[in-house]
User: What shape does this take?
Amino acid sequence: MSGEIRAVNRIEQRIAEAAKLGFEKIIVSRYNQKSTKGQLFKKDLGIEVVPMARVEEVYKFLF
Assistant: This one.
């Protein structure tokens, strides 16, 4: 089991939907970072985008 967080399609749409639902922060795959242009905060959407590569990073971030 590798624990790798894989990239998803249409990441910009998913981030926009999370912002619309009221989320202030979203964790995405580091491999989607090219799609988000490396921005950690989408000012136009009001949501912080946190890129991570492995599940272990997410656990450390959350707990």
About this structure: Helices lie at 11-20, 55-62. DSSP finds two helices and three strands in the chain.
